[in-house]
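hiii, so i know i said id send this last week but things got crazy w the move. better late than never?? heres the sequnce for the chain we talked about at the cafe, plus the structure i predicted for it. fair warning i was half asleep when i ran it
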Amino acid sequence: MVRLGLPGGDEKSFSEDKLSVSDAVESLGGSWRKQAVAVEFAGEVYDFNQDIEGEGDFKILTEKDTEALDVLRHSASHILAYAVLELFPDAKLAIGPPIDDGFYYDFDVETPFTPEDLEKIEARMN
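okay and structure toks below
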C-alpha cells in the first residue's frame, strides 16, 4: 500500500505496493500535472520517472521550489548530452552534474566546439 500525507492533513491511499510519481500527481487532479516538476515524498525528491513506495508526506514541487530546480538542471544536462551525441556521434561523455548556478557537461571531442556548434547544440536541445 502507498499512502500520501498531503498538505493540510489529508491523506490519499493506493492499494498498489508502489506507485509512479506520474500516477500520484494525476490522482490529485486539477492543474498539478502542468505545474509539477518533481515531488517530495518521505523527505526525498523524486522525478516523474520514478516510483514511490510506502508512506510519507507528499508535496508537489514546482519551478518555484529550489529542489525542483535541481531536477530541472539534472534533466537539462541529459538533454545537452543527447543533443551533442546526435550532432557529434564520436563525442565521448564525461560528467554533467547540476551545480549551484546551472549545470555543465564535460565532453571529450577531437576538435573543440565552435560558437556555431554551440548554436546548433542549443537549437537541437530546444
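btw The helical segments are 21-27, 32-35, 66-87, 115-125. thought thatd interest u
miss u guys!!
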